[in-house]
Known about the structure:
Shape: globular
Low-confidence stretches: 331-342
Largest sheet: 2 strands, parallel
Order of helices and strands: HHHHHHHEHHHHEHHHHHHHHHHH
Amino acid sequence: MEFVKCLGHPEEFYNLLRFRIGGRRKVMPKMDQDSLSSSLKTCYKYLNQTSRSFAAVIEALDGEMRNAVCIFYLVLRALDTLEDDMTISVEKKVPLLHNFHSFLYEPDWRFMESKEKDRQVLEDFPTYCHYVAGLVGIGLSRLFSASEFEDPLVGEDEERANSMGLFLQKTNIIRDYLEDQQEGREFWPQEVWGRYVKKLGDFAKPENIDLAVQCLNELITNALHHIPDVITYLSRLRNQSVFNFCAIPQVMAIATLAACYNNQQVFRGVVKIRKGQAVTLMMDATNMPAVKAIIYQYMEEIYHRIPDSDPSSSKTRQIISTIRTQNLPNCQLISRSHYSPIYLSFVMLLAALSWQYLSTLSQVTEDYVQTGER
């Protein structure tokens, strides 16, 4: 199936091949496992079990920053799992969260009281996103500055760091509507969907598909307001490994929102970007001009799909116009812009080998386009 998809996107096919035969290591160098202590090896084992996609970008960080972010991520995932467990009463959950730091020093501590998840409605969307994602962005930014990999301003500007986390979290929540419904979770903000239907689950009904798409477009428009902060934040980074770590998830999120915008499939199945698309983004998003070009590409894609009848159409056009003012280049990426006939011939020559390459692609590319972690 991926082979068929690539035939319509030869540049993605070319990048898939490059990624397989060594391009991945230019973006995500392989970590030396032999140099790790036994405890760190255990941490990285858990990291890969928890999220191979985040493990890939974390393992590509430089020096001691890599280990600090690995442990930081594992601790926050544990906290997030506890916070998201809707079967735990507030009376029991709050003390557990407040005392969680002390459990880190108790190797035998376990929480085994979770039951099947019950359906609950998220009442405070902005606050929830701040605590589960915004604070992650703030914490990571402070680590970047404290390590002197980045300037102090990166860690001091909490507003931009918060937006980095919020943009990723909102993208995941928007995309995962159907999966969350099927698993008894509701993360879409009631103050938005409540204007369209009585119950969030009603969006999955065929007779409500027009209302569902209107609500979807409103939420995507809201998420797009974080992109100016994302551009400002990324523009300040100077360490290459930190830049890659921050930029790759952001451009993946932008591409995902473009795929979801005005798309009824969000309420019927899985919306994800192509493997070749994901690999191309990973290999291109290594400098600020390239990231701006990616943003421009997907903003234009959304802009040209805005329905005039959509209630949020004027707001969507307005935020995209604002994003355009941030010196986005009106051009394609350099790596995509000057492919010669020789390149196209090369692609076609290797077409016969494509299935073998595609079937053995690294699992990391699959993780980037499957369901994102909370």
